[in-house]
Amino acid sequence: MNFSSRLIFALALTASPLAAQGLEMLSEVAERLGGADIDAKNGVTFDKNAGSLVWDGGIHLKSEAMEIFAERAEYVVEQEHLVITGDVSVYKDGMVYRGEKAIYSSKTNQLDASGMRSSLEPRAPLWFKSSSFNSATSGDVEVINSSGMEITTEDSSDPGFHISAKEVKIYPEDRIVFKNLKAYIGDVPVFWLPYLAQPLDEEQGYTFTPGYRSNMGGFLLNQFGDVIGDHSIIKYKLDGYSARGIGTGLEIHSRKFKEMAQGQNFGKFNFYWINDTNPLEGGLATNQDRTGVDANRYRVNLQHRVYLPGPEASDLYIDLDLNKISDEFFYEDFFPWEFREDPQPDNIINIVKTHERGELSVLTRLQLNDFYSTDTRLPEIALEAVKQPIGQTGLFYGSNTSFGILEDHLGSGDKDALTRRIDQIEALLAADAAGIPLEEALTKDGKKVNIEKVGNGILKPGEKFKLSQADDVLSQLRSQANESKFNRFHTYHELSYPTVVGGGITLAPRVGVGFTNYSSVSGPQPLNTSRAIVAAGLEASTKFSRTYDDVVIPSLGLNGVRHVVQPYLNWSYVNADDQGTEFGGIDRLVRSTEPRSLDVNNFTAVDSLSNWNIVRAGVTNRFQTKRNGGSFNWLQTNTYVDAYIEDPEFDRSLSNLYNEITFEPLSWMRLNIDSQLPIGGGDNSFSQLNTRVRFMPRKDLEFTIGHRFLKDHPYFENSSLIDLGTYYRINDNWGISAYERFEADDSTLEMQQYSIHRDLASWAMSLGAVIRDNRGETEYGMVFSLTLKEFPGVRIPIDYDPTGGNR
């Protein structure tokens, strides 16, 4: 109790024979209320008959337990109750209560706020009122009990959406438990559940997703999530597809794993099964033959990190990534968003020991799904030493060493396709040798063979197969079909000496040696079972800068300019015996449009390592300006080219001219350009231009435009893919959006999505449609979403996008 309250109360009691009793009571009440400070406009009076203290005319009470604003408060000593009335606001344990009356028990630390309107703010914008309402703290756990509760996310006396429940328990730091729950839009009931446990910090609880896809029919996906243990969420799934049947599953995953302390296990487990009533229905993305796909279709996935005990437990752990799938089309059908991100999931078990100087790992890779092509490692042991100084010598050392039992495994589909193409070419050669007309040789099992396709993956895109190429194509196909198996020991060690010489030039010469040995080789044989590797290189760079403080153009986001120019050069030399074209290896180069790494330590295609002598020369430009109290890269460019003294892949003298540009003049505009332009000529020259721009010409209009252009690549087909996304805000309540993707090379509008959006106070609603042209069958889908804007964790969402997913 503050000084003014004590003084007024003391003066009021001075002339009274009950003064001693009132002062004693005042001291006792202050202690019971946790040493409360109370500001009262009219002071405090003592009611002898009621045995109570009364504050009137507007009060403010503040203690460690709570803070109260009200017109009047009365503390009844015998009952140990504080009765607060008149425009009451109570802040207690992170809760806000507003109304006309509340009762607080200092004995039990319970607040009875029946009939008051309450909120979980600032933790969550939830407002509720109840016919019976009280909160209690038991130990460190707060529980709010209620009956006849109405709850909403709208701070309004007449919300457009609310939920009512017969019984509710609120754990403010954890979850809300409802019994006999009904959801209302306005006064119209739209949903009912007998029980719902809704975590406050996860997008869990019950969700349902209606939708339609051409190859699945109409569907309703149902999911219910709940908390198990201290750190995990479990989701139960029950889905119905009009064209495919009933599917069920569950998902368990760690929550808040990013916030967990180092050394705490985390991961997830997925299981899903469906008795597919139409498993042979062609896929929309791949449109492949599905003969042999069984009706019982499923997935079992385990991704988990387990830290092992030890002196430094967080430095030793096991990573598990195991994925068992019924067939290669399962993801495409039922989880298309995962299919696009990772069409062939891996299966590995990796034991890792980390250290500030490096890492030791024991990796096992398995082939759990025989329809996917993969390699197995049973196991592969690797030791990597990060680049580190050697005492005070100025030298730096880095290395990697590994030993593995490796085996290549073709997927059943790839194996059948290779066998079929080999048979076709052998039939053509035999027919030609026997003088049989090719028209007859092109017919196999009553079906005509497309001769132009038998060289796919080997010949250039668009190049037609000729009999003169048969031997070369047949040799490569047989090499691919003959699976490799070997034990491999590989080690590489490198020293570097970074230094600064006159003129501000930084030099970093390096030299490295390595050794690779192959044993127990089965399949295509390498020319050399053992080979030495010698490498050398030099990195050189310098930097120039100039400042232009008088360049101030607010419309372009310029507040002074600093231009930084950094020319650089990287020479890389490797001498490693060629293993021959027949030896495909396992860790081999993958066809790509991107330049290869010039750092042997980072060159993961160990089996494709061969002689090279390359000089990469380039220059970076950075135009910086002052923004938000610091330097900001207004425009960045990186331009470089590789000059080949010895080319390890083709017969080039110069690579393409590479150019990377990032331009971000204003917060509402960003441009990225990555380009490759042929300057050296030759059969392997190609052009590539990837562009993406995002801008908002007005505060209610946003565009994103992307273009991917590829022409004359030796392996990849020409492409000119354009995608356009836009959103227009019509007014405070309505908006429209569109997304289109168009392949100009064959004039195919691959995807169209159009939506209309409606703001419903605390909710956002979207309704639209999706069309996908899969060059064989067109897919149609509906989009409908209903989502809380401010607090997605307490929602009953309806959210479906056939191009993405809601899970």
Mind explaining what this structure looks like?
This protein is mainly beta and 807 residues long. It contains 7 helices and 45 strands. It has a 29-stranded antiparallel beta sheet that branches. A 6-stranded antiparallel barrel has the order 6-7-10-11-9-8. The protein has a two-stranded antiparallel sheet with strand order 26-27. Strand 4 (66-76) and strand 5 form a beta hairpin. Helix 1 (3-14) packs antiparallel against helix 2 and helix 5 (412-434) packs antiparallel against helix 7. The protein is globular and about 120 Å long.
Fold topology:
Elements: H1 3-14, H2 19-32, E1 37-40, E2 44-47, E3 52-62, E4 66-76, E5 81-92, E6 95-105, E7 110-112, E8 117-120, E9 124-129, E10 132-138, E11 141-152, E12 161-171, E13 175-185, E14 188-199, E15 206-213, E16 217-228, E17 232-241, E18 245-254, E19 266-275, E20 296-307, E21 316-325, H3 330-334, H4 336-341, E22 348-355, E23 358-365, E24 374-389, E25 396-409, H5 412-434, H6 438-441, E26 443-444, E27 447-448, H7 470-481, E28 485-496, E29 499-501, E30 505-522, E31 530-541, E32 544-553, E33 558-576, E34 612-627, E35 630-646, E36 654-666, E37 669-677, E38 687-698, E39 701-711, E40 719-729, E41 734-743, E42 748-760, E43 763-773, E44 778-788, E45 798-800
Antiparallel strand pairs: 1-3, 2-3, 3-4, 4-5, 5-6, 6-7, 6-8, 7-10, 8-9, 9-11, 10-11, 11-12, 12-13, 13-14, 15-16, 16-17, 17-18, 18-19, 19-20, 20-21, 21-22, 22-23, 23-24, 24-25, 25-28, 26-27, 28-30, 29-30, 30-31, 31-33, 32-33, 33-34, 34-35, 35-36, 36-37, 37-38, 38-39, 39-40, 40-41, 41-42, ...
